[in-house]
Amino acid sequence: MINKQNNKLGWLFASPYIIFGLVFFLGPLLWSLYLSFTNWDLIAPTYDFVGMDNFKKAMHAPGVQASFWVTYKFMMLFVPLVIVMSLGVALVIQGLPKFKSVYLIGFFLPYLSSGVVASLIVQGFLSYNSPVNEFLRKTFGLNIDWLGTPLSALFIVGLILAWKFTGYYALILTSGLESIDKEVYEAAAIDGVTQGQRFWKITLPLLYPALYTTLILAFGVTFGIFTEVYQLTGGGPNFATNTWQMEIFNQAFTNLQAGYASAIAIMASIVTFISIFVIRKLLESWGKRNGWV
Amino acid sequence: MVGSNKNRKSRLAVRYVLATILLLIMVYPYLYMVLNSFADWTQVDRQLIPSKFSFKSYEWLFTGGDVGIARPWMNAFFNSVIVSIASTVLMMLFGVMVAYALAKLNFRGRNAINNFVLFHMFFPAIILLIPNFLIIQKVGLYDTYWAMIIPKAVSLWAIFMYTNFFKAVPDAFIEAAKLDGASDFKILYKIMMPMSKSITAVIFLFLLMERWTELLWDMIVVRSDNMLTLNVLLSQMFGPYGSYPGPLYAASVLLTVPIIIMFAIFGKKFKEGMQFSLK
């Protein structure tokens, strides 16, 4: 029933979003596009239009190229790690007769942490005189600069993120597992299905919707990594952990290259948008090919 | 089937042991943080489990210690409280209002707004960082609480979640209330909100947690030492407090504990709400 009064009320109730969307989304979007064609430095009152120069410069900049690849490196590391960990947790605690929610809440706690705090703990834990490094030095004569070595720096940031998200994803997967009808398992047991077959042929297909949600969330995380990298490596060593956010932050607020940074932000958005789209399509076709959807 | 019951029991025992070990590994970083915040300063970051304890790290939270800034930690804590609560309350309020319009009010342009919300939600937000910073600067809000509150006053996710929840509420409730002469504000307040307590707990906790631990935005729109949030202050003190890690751990505890307390308070409602939101 659309009438005049409903129209007014509808717009009134929706007005907070409409104003917000115009001021902090649509306007900025256009402004960003405009800025990306200028050489503005965030301070000077005047600036020039430079056409596509910012984009051309960004294409060849080592920092930007690193951002592009680092995102996928984090993806290769973080996504399998967090899926294995959360699936492991979910399989262990699903259907426990007692204390299940105590475990679920316990595993969820890391999700409440601040990335700054997690970084601080990891930095302390891996500092030169820490028990771990002391042990490695005394026993194996190893002296590892954890955050100064490209591969281990990448791995440590991936591990912090996996630690943070495992409990949250385990919660999603547990409720997925528990929605599977017990009779299916009982019927399978009568047919003499092995544990391995049971997981691949029954659990995984029926878990697919929950797994899909988890995977989409996990892939999304890799495009927004900032805090841990900012805190622990600053994008180094030698751009090994330089994410898009890190690069944009550095160009805009350290080097004050607002125009150039806007161009990078637009490139980052396009890359993110396309990547997520492709990942979604791949995941969906993976499910369809196996007849899970 | 005689042996299978025993088998089942022992398999269950193995799962409990496994779950407990995994849980201990996952919460160990928190344990490490708490123990180090109470550790004697000769032992901070030197032992897996410290053996000598002191309150010196916490004393520094109140006095500022030798670093030269007086009482920055408690001040930052209150900044965090003000900003997080104001911002989260606004996100909830506007989320409920907009969602009610999108789910239950039939008005011209509703579909367009609905689609725009989805477009906005899935758009990579990084592109907005610089222009939003410039807007804050242009309207003279740089270095104020408002700079941290207004651009974080609307949550697309909250709108999305409430819209889905409200859509599941039968229209008959609303029509009956309207026949009794209730206004839409009253319906929202008296019918929709009481029905959505558990989903509200979930949305509130997620939003509060996210706002409380925000770094990038709060870092760029504020400059004065007395305006920083606790998370930003902690982030900036990595260097200056580099040789005093004890107080940094104490500040981390100060930053972590309130969220865990909130989680404990709303824990039960949260569990119910998660069940809906995961459907």
TrEMBL record, chain A:
SUPFAM superfamilies: MetI-like
Transmembrane feature ranges: 12-34, 74-93, 102-126, 146-163, 206-226, 258-279
InterPro entries reported for this sequence: ABC_transporter_permease (IPR051393), MetI-like (IPR000515), MetI-like_sf (IPR035906)
Stated family: Belongs to the binding-protein-dependent transport system permease family.
Location of this chain's protein in the cell: Cell membrane
Domain of life, source organism: Bacteria
Lipid bilayer topology: Multi-pass membrane protein
Record keywords, A-Z: Cell membrane, Membrane, Transmembrane, Transmembrane helix, Transport
Main location, first listed in the record: membrane
All residue ranges annotated as the ABC transmembrane type-1 domain in the record: 68-279
Organism: Paenibacillus glycanilyticus
Protein name: Sugar ABC transporter permease
Name of a matching Pfam family: BPD_transp_1
Automatic annotation (TrEMBL), chain B:
Pfam name, any one: BPD_transp_1
Record membrane topology: Multi-pass membrane protein
KW Transmembrane (keyword) present: yes
Superkingdom as given in the UniProt entry: Bacteria
UniProt domain ABC transmembrane type-1: residue ranges: 77-266
Location, primary (coarse class): membrane
TM region positions: 12-31, 81-103, 115-134, 146-166, 187-209, 248-267
Record carries keyword Transmembrane helix: yes
Subcellular location: Cell membrane
Keywords on record: Cell membrane, Membrane, Transmembrane, Transmembrane helix, Transport
Family: Belongs to the binding-protein-dependent transport system permease family.
Protein name: Sugar ABC transporter permease
